[in-house]
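Memo to structure team: turn this sequence into structure tokens by end of day. - J.P.
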Amino acid sequence: EVIELRRELIGDEGPRHHLVACSVFESTWMDAVDAHHEHALMFIAEGVFMYFEEPRIRSLVLTLRERFPGAELVFDACSPFVMRANTLLSRLSRTTIVPRYAWGLKHARDLEAWGEGISLLDEWYPFDHPEPRLARVRWLRHVPPLAKIMGIFHYRLGEAP
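Reply from structure team:
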């Protein structure tokens, strides 16, 4: 359903991006990528990982490293502080359904400990940059638990053959 909606709103595939309608944890899409990739790969997971437990994410990352050595992975993640706040909010909320966050990344380098060859290339936090839309809350960058509540992380998964 999500892929069909994406096609309606954004358009179909292009030469550099492909849409596969299946779970990120299924091998179906990996088989399709494995059969057709000729260039370096970058996998982007937007708004995905926070909803799954760490063992599933770790397994996925290690599988990507094994099947596509040298590929890059970019994803967004919230901090454990946001996870705790989300859990509290979901318990207190009686009128709305709050999706439960299951995983957060405390330090960007923590992922490197998941396996040999996983290396952090870059990390980006919204409060570190002068984003006009965040002007009213930029003061949060001075409060350590809040300064890095959400980030975007970029890794290399192993060495290319």
